[in-house]
Amino acid sequence: MLEVTGLSVAYGGLRALSDVSLAVGEGQFITVVGPNGAGKSTLFKTISGIVPPQGGGIRFCGEDLLARPASDRAHLGIAHVPEGRQVFKSLTVRENIEMGAFPEAGRRHYARTLERIHALFPILEQRHAQLAGTLSGGEQQMLAIARGLASGPRLLMLDEPSMGLAPAVADMIFDRISQIHREDGLTILLVEQRVAEALELCDRGYVLETGRIVLDGPYQTLMNDDRVRRSYLGIG
Ligand code: ATP
Predict the structure, then answer these.
(1) Of 29, 52, 90, 236, whose CB neighbour count within 10 A is largest?
(2) What rounded mean pLDDT belongs to the chain?
(3) Handedness of CA 61, 65, 67, 70 (dihedral sign)
(4) Closest CA to 123 of 91, 152, 90, 94
(5) Ligand 1 atom 16: the closest Cα is on which residue?
(6) What SS3 state is found at 122?
(7) Which residue owns the Cα nearest ligand 1 atom 8?
(8) How far away, in angstroms, is 121 Cα from ligand 1 center?
(9) Predicted-complex ipTM score
(10) 193-229 as b/e, with b when 16 or more CB fall inside 10 Å?
(11) pLDDT tens digits, residue range 75-132?
């Protein structure tokens, strides 16, 4: 579904991604883990069209994404749930969800999707008229995911959904993401610093360090890798 090949991105003289390649198959759950500043957010911003690359290619469902502006990429079915949630604080919960539904696929299935969002996150139904800026961090994260779902995506990209959340709230968010993948069959690309929890969810994972993929493989392979165990899981 998504194929990233040899991607390189720089901010001025600073190289943020070097020769990054990864693949996401339809229906898969793929996780990218790595420390602060590894380039995880840059990878997502390049896929969704916010940051232009210096080299490499990105194909999505047979389309050359780099030839399309960011707005087209949303219409093609890419939903980017950004780091730090970025909800529209002065709009209500319901208005935030409606804002996500601007692509044709989102508008067509809006009523059904809203029902699904409320089943996943009942608090968003209870708080539908509340201003998003007054929600707790966990609630804002639920809203950011809901806004992404409202676009009717084929690929849901989640940038550090657990950031700044208490462990119990982060676990709940991970559970919901897993549920969306399992029950709705949605293809998911997740980047996370909570390595153990994030890898547990995925079919396949990639380890990104200082802009390079240093390791990739299925869940079991990564969990058994000495380097992953030592550097990210604190084992061995
Ligand atoms: P974190 O988990 O801390 O958000 P990350 O893995 O998502 O980190 P990025 O945010 O992609 O990493 O940053 C990768 C590198 O690019 C970092 O060195 C960062 O300082 C730099 N960088 C990111 N955005 C910009 C920008 N707009 N201008 C200049 N440098 C940037």
Answers:
(1) 29
(2) 94
(3) positive
(4) 94
(5) 16
(6) helix
(7) 37
(8) 31
(9) 0.93
(10) bbbebbbebbebbbbbbebebeebeebeebbebeebe
(11) 999 999 999 899 999 999 999 999 999 888 889 999 999 999 999 999 999 999 999 9
Rg of the chain (C-alpha set): 17
Structure tokens at 165: 């959340």
Tell me the mean pLDDT in the region 187-203: 91
What 3-state DSSP class applies to 225?
Answer: coil
Q: How many angstroms is it from 8 CA to the middle of ligand 1? A: 13
Question: From the alpha carbon of 39, which atom of ligand 1 is closest?
Answer: 11
- Report which ligand 1 atom has the smallest distance to the Cα of 193: 2
Ligand 1: lining residues by beta carbon, under 6 Å: 11, 14, 16, 34, 36-42, 83, 193
**Does residue 197 register a pLDDT over 90?**
no
Please report, rounded to a whole number, the percentage of residues in the chain having pLDDT higher than 90: 83
Q: Whose CA is nearest to atom 21 of ligand 1?
A: 16
How remote is the CA of residue 153 from the centroid of ligand 1, in Å? 26
Return d(Cα 63, Cα 58) in angstroms, integer: 8
Instruction: Give the tens place of pLDDT for each residue, 41-74.
Output: 999 999 999 999 999 999 999 999 999 999 899 9
List 58's β-bridge partners, or say none.
4
- Name the token pair of 213: 């993929």
